[in-house]
Amino acid sequence: MKRILGVAAMAVVLTACSSETDADTDGDGTVSQEEMAAAAQDAIKPEPGQYRSTVKMVEVDIPGAPPEAVEMMQSGMGEQTQESCMTEEDAAKGFEEMAKGTQNGDCTTNKFVVNGGDIDAEMTCAVPGQGEMKMTMDGSGTSTSMDMTMTMEGEIPGMGDARMVMNVQSERIGDCS
Tens place of pLDDT for every residue, the chain, 177 residues? Predict the structure, then answer.
């Protein structure tokens, strides 16, 4: 969940960037932290303040899983809301610090395209004991809000292929207390 909210926070910053080409400038098939930082160089920084982020499970499709297990996953993840304070210091760091949190050695960014307020990105993450999960992000936002759909696909041992779709919405709700 922390990784999802970290990626969501990164998207708030990036959706205001005006580049419309993939950040993979060296063409090696992965987007480094440096390439993401360069792509986001002209992005506006998020406004400091109190933010409310809501993560809602939209779809859980695991054909090899017992229906009650899928039901439990969907109801357990259902809809979760979290509030956090983005200080002036955090906002000044903007994208660079957030990007570091998404690429801590177990995730690789394969695609990263920002155009106006829109983002289209893809990451592959190694999940201990499960192999790889591919996560795509498609959404839009401003310096104070974001609406993104995140799709995760991969194999779950003992159950087979899995697909989960979440919607993440984040908005500035005022000043930090």
Answer: 444 444 444 444 444 444 455 677 788 878 777 777 676 665 567 799 999 999 999 998 988 888 887 788 777 777 889 999 999 988 877 655 544 445 555 888 888 777 767 788 898 988 777 788 899 999 888 889 989 999 999 988 877 889 999 999 999 999 998
> What's the CA gap between 34 and 103, in Å, rounded?
11
CB atoms closer than 10 angstroms to residue 39: 22
The interaxial angle of helices 88-102 and 2-14, nearest 10 deg, is 120
3-state secondary structure of 45: coil
The span from the CA of 151 to the CA of 146, in Å, is 16
* CA–CA gap between residue 57 and residue 77 (Å, rounded): 6
pTM for this model (two decimals): 0.72
E strand intervals along 4-144:
49-61, 79-86, 107-115, 118-127, 131-141
